[in-house]
Amino acid sequence: MIYGNTFNSILKDILKLTCIQYVMDIVGPELSEPANTISSFKLAGLLESAIRSSNAQYDDRDILDRLRVKMMAHNTGDRGWDVFPFDYEATVPLNTVFTESVMGRYLRMFNFLWKLRRVEHALIGAWKTVKPNSIASHFFNKLQNAVRLQLLMTSRKCQVLWDDMNHFATNLQYYIMFEVLEVSWSKFLNEMEVAKDLDDLLAAHEIYLHSIIEKSLLGERSQTLYKTLFVLFDLILRFRSHADRLYEGIHEFQAKTTDSSRDKSKSRLHPNDKTSKPGSWVSEGRKALTQRAIAFLRNIEQDLDAIGKEYSSLLEGFISQLPVQKDINLKFLLFRLDFTEFYSRMHPKT
Hints:
Elements: H1 2-19, H2 21-31, H3 40-52, H4 61-66, E1 67-69, H5 80-83, E2 86-88, H6 100-130, H7 137-142, H8 145-194, H9 198-215, H10 223-258, H11 260-269, H12 286-321, H13 330-337, H14 342-346
Antiparallel strand pairs: 1-2
Helix pairs in contact: 1-6, 2-3, 6-8, 6-10, 8-9, 8-10, 8-12, 8-13, 10-12
């Protein structure tokens, strides 16, 4: 029973921390830095702050005290997000089951869940700026026709691309959390109940661990899918940065347009203010301001087009590979991603 309770506590606490929005918010800025500049001690402090600010603080203190921040091996150019997982320090007698090799595999799984959660977090943040009511209607009605049309086209493209990415991320997360982890865990619990000795428990645990690794595309047979998946993740993160740029630019344009008289007065009174420097929007006339706004929106639209085309191509390739995978469980993922047969109709041969 000690093993069963501990298994449950470890997985529950790590998964809970992986899914807590506040954890993402508090460690996000630090993890955006280059991996070789991040301090594990600082991350551990941030993790402790996140635990104290969430319901996780009421869980088994012994389990929480064994949770560690362990930076994975990193390459040049890696960010903290790429190498940050939660780790668990197993002692006697638990290290009989949680060996170094086993914990290494758990580490891969938790790192994957963390990256998936990061993508979801990025999409949630993007929606806060992309949502249709983010542009005040009174401002929209005052725009010139050319700017209004370009703004409509660019915003529409951004929202459609967000919806496509959100559909993928949401259904992938559902598949991992419920059809992989939940189902495999239920089977493992049943095997633990009938285990007669430690050897039976170790065998059942090995089957469980192998199952979640393979079904989560982390196995050797799924490396092509795994690599494609992480390229898709990177594209979603790139989209987030472009969506932020788009709506920051829109709000700046709105501010400069509606407060042009006040800004001009400010520029005369404060010639050294950065908003009045040559090249800034406020230093130019209304016509030049409009031209710059249209050029800015077109550039963003072109960037979104490029991201959208690459994303669609990769996603279609990813989905087309699912039916030929040896693991039959991946068909559940195919069904969730393509339950309307949208992608199947686009490529009947796949």
